[in-house]
Amino acid sequence: MKIVVLMGGDSTEREVSLVSGDQVAKTLIENGHEVIKIDPTATHDEQTELNKTDIHWIGLDYPVKDALPLHRSSLYLKNIMLVRRLRPDIVFNALHGGKGENGVVQGMLYAAEIPYTGSDMLASAIAMQKDISKMFFRQHNIPTPRAIVLERPDSSRKKLKHIRFPQVVKPADQGSTVGLHIVKRKEELDAAIDDAFQFNSKVLVEEYIPGKEITVSIIRQRTLPVIEIIPEHGLYDYECKYKEGMSQYEVPAKLKDDVTRLVQNIAYKAHLVLGCTGYSRVDMRLNEQNEPYVLEVNTLPGMTGTSLVPKAAKAAGINFNSLIEIIVEEGLKREE
């Protein structure tokens, strides 16, 4: 098949996306596919320069004269139009965060009638907005930490007067723990909120659940083994996620069978409630009473050397090459 890999983008997770995209493209080539890599925010000159070091970048196939002289922020639209002209069998969406994960790119691909991997526009948009996804969780009796939403930087913070610490402060639509803080004292709260507002116009102040950091990956309507994450310095932050050796992983997590089943069932329910398809990763906390709480659903989880979905798949007997093929097959199913 001819497969376009979308990677890079302009979100705060750009560097992670480039690594994921490289891993995916390499694997698809190994699996015998024709692969074209495209950064949806790159210009003609930038795409051509990338092609000099890796022939799988679009490079010289990119139109020399811009048919649409768009502002740089509109390059997504131009590059999706380019993808349509290439007539791929499917797009593998290896973007993380921003327009690549919040439904914008999914909507463009849908409108252009291009098959793509991952969840559709609506599910992607709901999952990316943590405050909206929490509403869905609560409506369907899925346990999730209590949270207060601040709509803008100058919102009154009086509603935070009686909260108990620690609290988790995070932007409403960022991944990879960008802008996230664990606030242990009232004196630290305002600074954490101000920092989180640098990344989004909405911020969540969320109840901190003491206990274990766990995650459940879902592929082809199947829950994979639960992973427990043990970060080097307490918070599973950007460094612990992507730097080798900064986190330890129990795969599968050492949980009692009934707890494992409970965690997997709740994760799968969260996946379904948001309308996710193909694959996802559900991040959770497990308190000291073995009660799980859903934090968020990731519709485009990482595919790097330290990423969690490949670890869970491996524990289930699915190697990385097979995992990538399954994701492609699931994307094509939606078009049938």
List keywords for this structure.
globular, Rossmann fold, D-amino Acid Aminotransferase, Chain A, domain 1, Dna Ligase, domain 1, alpha+beta, 336 residues, four-stranded antiparallel sheet, 3 domains, 19% strand, 12 helices
Please provide a written account of the structure.
The chain is α+β, with helices and mostly antiparallel strands and 336 residues long. The protein is built from 12 helices and 13 strands. The protein has 3 domains: 2-116, Rossmann fold (3-Layer(aba) Sandwich), CATH 3.40.50.20; 126-143 and 210-333, ATP-grasp fold, B domain (D-amino Acid Aminotransferase, Chain A, domain 1), CATH 3.30.470; 147-207, Dna Ligase, domain 1. It is 36% helix and 19% strand. The strands form 3 sheets. Strands 8, 9, 10, 11, 12 and 13 form a 6-stranded antiparallel sheet that branches. Strands 4-7-5-6 form a 4-stranded antiparallel sheet, covered by helices on one side. Strands 2-1-3 form a 3-stranded parallel sheet, covered by helices on one side. α1 (14-30) crosses α12. The radius of gyration is 20 Å and the shape is globular.
Broad CATH class of the largest domain: Alpha Beta
Q: Helical element count?
A: 12
Classify the secondary structure makeup into a structural class.
Answer: alpha+beta
Gyration radius (Cα, Å) is: 20 Å
Mean pLDDT, to the nearest integer, reads 88
The biggest sheet amounts to: 6 strands, antiparallel
Q: At the fourth CATH level, what is the homologous superfamily of the largest domain?
A: ATP-grasp fold, B domain
Order of helices and strands: EHEHHEHHHHEEEHEEEEHEHEEHH
Total strands: 13
